[in-house]
């Protein structure tokens, strides 16, 4: 199980990181479902039921399943802590230091947001 999925299940992600309550509930549900049954195997009805929100709420706040995926992409940089890691890459004094910093960026993406990245890959095959 990936780090970020575990955090979502135990509820340790700070509420301030997520948008308004119904939208955040829908995004958390989408993240869990996109990771488990997969993007193609998840319907808006599934997400609404797991989030405890009406389908109309999802439609009004996120627009579509694709809209939810795009909103999750926005969380990647924040959750992976990319900004300070990217600064390490650009300010590295040597090639080796830049490479090491780049590896830390990649590792952070995978450990903290691997489920979103996997959803992107599966969505790419499902979306026209």
| Total number of domains | 1
Coarse shape: elongated
CATH level-4 homologous superfamily: Tetracycline Repressor, domain 2
Class in CATH?
Mainly Alpha
Q: CATH topology, anyone? A: Tetracycline Repressor, domain 2
Describe the structure.
There is one protein chain. With 128 residues, the protein is mainly α. It has a single domain, classed as Orthogonal Bundle (Tetracycline Repressor, domain 2). 75% of the residues lie in helices and 0% in strands. It is built from seven helices and no strands. It is elongated.
Write a short abstract of this structure.
The protein is mostly helical and 128 residues long. The chain contains seven helices and no strands.
How are the SSEs placed, and which strands pair?
Blueprint: H1 3-10, H2 21-35, H3 44-51, H4 55-61, H5 65-80, H6 82-91, H7 95-126
Helix pairs in contact: 2-3, 2-5, 2-7, 5-7, 6-7
Highlighted features:
Tetracycline Repressor, domain 2, disordered N terminus, 0% strand, 75% helix, elongated, 128 residues, mainly alpha
């Amino acid at each position: 199980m990936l780090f970020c999925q575990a955090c979502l299940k135990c509820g340790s992600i700070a509420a301030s990181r997520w948008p308004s309550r119904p939208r955040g509930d829908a995004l958390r549900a989408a993240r869990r479902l996109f990771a488990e049954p997969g993007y193609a195997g998840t319907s808006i009805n599934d997400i609404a039921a797991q989030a405890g929100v009406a389908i109309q709420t999802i439609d009004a706040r996120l627009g579509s399943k694709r809209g939810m995926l795009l909103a999750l992409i926005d969380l990647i940089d924040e959750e992976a802590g990319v900004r300070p890691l990217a600064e390490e890459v650009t300010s590295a004094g040597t090639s080796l230091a830049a490479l090491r910093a780049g590896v830390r960026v990649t590792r952070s993406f995978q450990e903290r947001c691997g489920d979103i990245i996997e959803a992107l890959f599966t969505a790419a095959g499902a979306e026209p």
